[in-house]
Amino acid sequence: MEHAVQAAVSILFDGIAYSMVLFVMAVGLSVTMGLMGVINLAHGAFAMAGGYLTVTFLGNLGLPFLPGLVLAVLAVGAASIPIEHTLYVRIYNRPHLDQVLLTIGVTLMAIAVATYAYGPSPLSIKLPAFLETQVGVFGRDFPAYRAFIIGVGVLAFLALWAGFERTMLGAKIRAAVDNRAMAEAAGVNTTRLFTLTFALGSALAALGGALAVDLVGLTPRFALQYLVLVLIVVSIGGFGTIMGAFAASLMIGVIDNAGRYLYPEGSAFFIYLVVILVLVVRPGGLFGRA
Amino acid sequence: MAAPESTAAAARARSVADAFLRRRDDARLVEAGFWLVALAVPIALPEHAAFGGQVLIMMLFALSLDFVLGYAGVLTLGHAAYFGVGAYVSGLLSAKLGWHEPLSGLVAAGAVSAAFGALSGWLLLRYRDLTLLMLTLAVSTTLFELANTWSSLTGGYDGLMGIQIAPIFGVFEWDIAGVTGYGYVLAVLLLCFVALRRFTVSPFGQALRGIRENTLRMRAIGAPILGHLTLAYTIAAAVAGIAGGLFAQTNNFITMDVLSFERSAAVLTVLILGGTGRLYGALFGALVYMLAADWLAKLSPVYWEFGVGLLLVVIVLLCPDGLLGLYDRVRAAFGGRAR
Amino acid sequence: MRKRSTSWIMPLALLAIGAGAPQAAADTVKVGVILPFSGMAADVAQSELRAMKLYYKLHKAELGGNDITLIERDSKEPSGATAQTLTRELVVQDKVDMLVGYQFSPDAIASAPFITQAKKLAILVNAQSSYIPKLSPYIVRLSASSWQITYPMGPYAVDKLGCKTAIVGYTDFAPGRDVAAAFKAGYEKAGGKLVDSIAMGGPAQVPDFTPYLQRIKDEKPNCVYIFTPAASFNAALARTWRDQKLAEAGIRFLGTGDVTQDSVLPQLGDNAIGWITGGHYTADLNTPENKKFVAAWYKEYGDKVKPDFFTVQGYDAMAAVFHVVKTLKGKIDADKAVAALKGWKVNSPRGPIMIDAETRDIIQNIYVQKVVKKGDSLGIEVIDTIPAVKDPCKELGVGNCGAGSPAKK
Questions:
Q1: Which residue in B138, B313, B316 is closest to A275 by CB distance?
Q2: Does C244 contact A at CB distance below 8 Å?
Q3: What interface predicted TM-score (ipTM) does this complex get?
Q4: Sequential DSSP letters for C13-26
Q5: Domain C12-144+288-360 is classified in which CATH homologous superfamily?
């Protein structure tokens, strides 16, 4: 019995760590899709960029872990601004098909560039010593890196939630998500807001990608592989809500992990069945406005 | 308002409307050109017959998507689901049940895909936009995982082997150059094209366009939206299933690839390349896409996906109506009659 | 950037100086190369092609009056559809004399009927599903079969490593299931107790291995035997193995040679020290043949990437092509070519290899390899050799390897 409890705690802990990576990757997409109504399938490419830049900063440039990570995230966020100005503005009012295809095209190009620059082999990063140890939590030992990820995820959630609910900027974003025209009428510069939100979303995606490198490894195909998972999180959680992304990530991460422990052969499906179930019962997602 | 019109007057009005639709969408002489060229390929370029057959299959698959996307306005990220169902049905019929007759295998593929399309359409088409998009993706990825889990049946990643197809009508043997296959696929493509064409010019097709353009108004005039959409989706699924069946029969081998997201994305690319909402867009888009992919792969095997990605971005930004839309605009610019 | 291979035609003048060169125009043998130059296995394909070219460079004088041209084509996705189309195209359009390649098993499985119909020799550079040579009389395999690598480790684990209980973990697709079946068969036959068989996610994307390793930890076997198909999986596995502290739990790690392939060893980190795998090649193999090969490889391509078993598979495939061209003096007839390879023996960098005349599959040594620290980096120490292993799947007639064509099943 004690054994079962121990196993359950391990699964929960690891599931939550995995969820936090998903959350950080997906929350940016939830906000941009909810705010700008644009389907951005290139979101995975931004996550991948975060991963690769982290590899370069930590590996080739020899920066220490945290500064390298932060720099990579900021770099992707900054780089996304000109991309938004040149490419994305043109598709904001286009039919969904156009958005889907343009962003898939961007993703394919990003994969090819990554293959050219870094090669198709998987890359990894060297974690600092303090993250390779074990951490004692409630009398049990857990891998420090996963505890770190959970910490980052929860911090990100709290910061975003506070930002959205408590600041003026957050209020403007919420207003624009609810009704862009009205927000404009009330004097909100939605164009600048879009750019800012897009940059924030991309930076968060990059953070997620960087964190994922040590978890699951990094290859150029990362952009497409994690796209589906991120889309699932966003649609289950509801577009444009931070709480939704958080809840959905937790659900997906823990269920996926538990499924793989209990039914290794059949686990892949559970996720998709959950998607169908949730969307049929609540088409707008758990926390979305249908 | 005046009393309801007499049935004779109503019938006259309807026949005028039908004639208008038919005249507007009637076959033109230039179309015959396309089909004649298609027929000439295996004669003029017999070494490329096998590749040509695959191009024709992609054309059929794209036609099915155009019907549901270009005419009914339903954007789906999981159309490969129906292609895959059709492929596995005809594959399994031959490999596991020992039924090698091609035409009946094709009919079975279409029928099962249609049934699946009807069921999933009826469940999913109540939703719109992003929810519908995610649901279509979820359906096809679930099927993909299912095919992997049932690998004892489907062969999983190793693929389904042992598909052997009997000669067509007992007479036409399958040759390695693929000429027989080409003729077979071309015939099926033509038949399906004619059938889809009839659907698009019919009042049903008009209703679909109406739903695509303005759902609210259609609802206001009492059109059965879900019913129409489901019917369109079912027809599209049937045709996609037939394309999948052809794929299994001409390749004698399929893997879970037939259900993959990449396949759904490829057929979407084909449509935007050629132009949606006009059946020939699917045909031209498929031709250009397959040729470009093949040429790019030979040119630079490692980086062809950069080319495809760039192509997508350029098409979406510069000619979102696709190549045929571009052609229309050029013709209009030179004083031709706009469609 | 891949470019189309240009034809290497040697000047006839050189030949005239050599003794007994034929006077007629030199026969250029066209070899179609079908490998996935794009996609997940691109670096493996590149490594195999480079090995082929290296062999050509080192041995081209042996060709006498003939020459070999490689026509490279990208087989892209692992489903086999493109490989099959390419097989047909290379035969019908480019009129190749033989085919070499087929990285993934579906590539070979899909192409087999056309290989037979076209009557062309097809040399497998990888494609390790055990029953593949049965699919066509013109297929000859120069790589390995999954049963050949895995089955002998079962008895070895019981007899030499003290594994009374074990769990097998594998990536959930056909090659993985193959490995699981092979290990179970060999291990249980030797008296071991297989406690569990765990499918660890699909091959499309690297999973988080934690729940699977957690399950293994909870079931407390003596040993675990694992197969994962590619470098990214192995690296993630090593990290999770460290994080979950399975070594501390007293569980010994065993695996297929794929898990410790030389090109990826550096990425496994010190977490992998002590791991034992069974495979058919390691760059650290201490034979004169291998030392020469590795030196030539480093000289030609730099010493940043070690050659691994994929590399040597490509190298030996080219050796087979050379043998056929030399034996048939450039006039390639498929039946004669296959006959020339049946029973062919050579001292490859991986040790003595032979093509089984009955099955057209490869017979080779399986090395029990241990990951050790060599100076600053990781290396392999060969602690044992299981000599001249024939593919057990076909020997025992298991499943698809059994009597009759698997296509009919």
A1: B138
A2: yes
A3: 0.84
A4: HHHHHSTT--SSPP
A5: Response regulator (3.40.50.2300)
